[in-house]
Amino acid sequence: MLHGIVIGHATATIKHRSLIGWRMVIVQPIGPDGRPEAADPQIAVDRHGAAPGQRVVLNSDGLAARELIGDSKTPVRFFVIAVVD
Predict the structure, then answer these.
(1) What is the pLDDT of residue 18?
(2) In terms of Cα–Cα distance, which of 79, 13, 2, 3 is closest to 43?
(3) What superfamily in CATH does domain 2-83 come from?
(4) 5 burial level (CB within 10 Å; 0-12, 13-18, 19+)
(5) For the chain, what are the domain ranges?
(6) pLDDT digits (tens, 9 = 90+) for 47-84
(7) Mean of all residue pLDDT scores within the chain
(8) Alpha-carbon distance 66 to 71, whole Å?
(9) Cα 48 from Cα 6, distance rounded (Å)
């Protein structure tokens, strides 16, 4: 699991069929001190409605992502599992 801050959302007119209807957000991983890490931002599937500036918890388990999406061939790896209050 990773903590991150939502920095935007992703829009795609052409995408894998498994992503149709899913909301995608761009998340910057953060460290325990809440500061952005040197890691690249990740695109994650979000069904919780996280907005830019909100802290989220990400899961990077590919099998869990495939189960969430319901497609064994989906390219999704990251998904939001919680919005931190």
Answers:
(1) 95
(2) 79
(3) EutN/Ccml (2.40.50.220)
(4) buried
(5) 2-83
(6) 999 999 999 999 999 999 999 999 999 999 999 999 99
(7) 94
(8) 6
(9) 12
